[in-house]
Design a protein that fits this description.
Helix content: 25-40%
Number of strands: 5
Strand order of the largest sheet: 1-2-3-5-4
Strand content: 25-35%
Largest sheet: 5 strands, antiparallel
Radius of gyration: 14 Å
Shape: globular
Length: about 80
């Protein structure tokens, strides 16, 4: 799954080594720290999304709630008109 905010892009994938874990890759270390502050942020060789964290699904759902709360609904109609 790909999530894009006004300040960062996130790629969410299942962990290869842990069944109940997901990996969140991002181009923004700052946004990863803001949404997943209690988790260790790692740097990878990927130049497009060089930062990642491993998270349980509950922590990820909490971060999604924060992302939704930050939507600027004042400008939301102009974004929807561009997409539609």
């Amino acid at each position: 799954m790909i999530i894009q905010t006004s300040t960062a892009s996130f790629l969410i994938q299942t962990c290869q080594d842990q069944k109940d874990c997901i990996t969140i890759h991002s181009n923004s270390e700052i946004d990863l720290a803001r949404y997943f502050g209690s988790l260790e942020i790692n740097k990878s060789e990927n130049h497009t999304l060089p930062f990642h964290v491993k998270s349980c699904k509950q922590e990820f759902s909490d971060a999604l709630i924060l992302m939704v709360k930050e939507i600027d609904y004042f400008d939301f109609s102009s974004v929807v008109s561009v997409l539609g």
